[in-house]
Amino acid sequence: MHGKLHTARSADGTPIGYETTGAGAPLVLVHGGVSDRTYWAPVVPALAERFTVVSMDRRGQGASGDTAPYSIERECDDVAAVVDAFGEPVHLVGHSYGGLCALGAALRTSNLRTLTLYEPAIVPPGTVPEEFAAAIEELVESGERDAAVELMMGELVGLPADALAGLRADPALWQPMVDAVHTLPRELRTVMGFVFRPESCAAIDVPTALLTGSLSDPALRAGVDLVRGAVPGARVVHMEGVDHEAVTTGPEVLTAALVDALHSGQRV
Predict the structure, then answer these.
(1) How far apart are alpha carbons 192 and 184 in whole angstroms?
(2) Cα distances (angstroms) measured from residue 57 to each of 20, 23, 50, 108, 169
């Protein structure tokens, strides 16, 4: 399913591409690391029956530009720019690293209906060693981009060998990851140095849901507990039988969880 491609301008002037599909209240989807807007393809058709699905490319990936120096603050500005491109409040969903960006964007815009974060990448110290980021960087710089993706998805995300093999066998899923892997070292280092400030989250006043998979690595679920304790009224939606990559390992489960989270908000 292909939609219309648009561009928003971030605060620093960087063009941020996003694709719209369907009709209804806008639903902005922010992908995590090693991907682009096509990451959401398995769930877009079902969601587009209820919403105008807005799949954005984070900076440095897909149809979006990039501007040095890099910072997650600029990524938060990017998400806010896409959200503010709509003339009505939007549902905002962020996955993993994109969850961090969406969380920051929620503090930069007043144009939200709801906020949904799927295992935002707030991890315990030491979860991502510098050696791991350096290994990814070395593989990318030597042109071994496929190996870099395999290392990330296998060792850090923890995909089982059969799921990883299935992912690699599908060019529509695998190639965008290969194309985006050059941004991974900077994102890993950002996660390593990220300081969660719960006091800032008290300002988030929209219905907030936190999605988590029953099979996810506990380190990848840590952010759910932190944000739940910091955002007033935040609730957790448990997804049974899926992990951190439910968009590919259980898209129907993720779709049902998203629809539940969005329609449980007070401003749908």
Answers:
(1) 12
(2) 12, 20, 22, 19, 23
The string of pLDDT tens digits covering residues 63-78 is 999 999 999 999 999 9
Overall CATH class of domain 4-124+195-263: alpha beta
Cα gap 196→165, rounded to integer Å: 35
List the beta bridge partners of residue 118.
95, 211
If you write DSSP's letter for every residue of the chain in order, what string do you get?
---EEEEEE-TTS-EEEEEEEESSSEEEEE--SS--GGGGTTTHHHHTTTSEEEEEPPTTSTT----SSP-HHHHHHHHHHHHTTSSS-EEEEEETHHHHHHHHHHTT-S-EEEEEEES-S---TTSS-HHHHHHHHHHHHTT-HHHHHHHIIIIIS---HHHHHHHHH-HHHHHHHHHHGGGHHHHHHHHHH----HHHHTT--S-EEEEEETTS-HHHHHHHHHHHHHSTT-EEEEETT--TTHHHH-HHHHHHHHHHHHHTSTT-
CA atoms of 65 and 56, how far apart (whole Å)? 12
For 214-227, write each residue's pLDDT tens digit: 999 898 899 999 99
Task: For residues 151 and 182, give the distance between their C-alpha atoms in angstroms, rounded to a whole number.
Answer: 13
pLDDT of residue 41 exceeding 60, the answer is: yes
**Cβ atoms within 10 Å, residue 219:** 18
**pTM to 2 decimal places:** 0.94
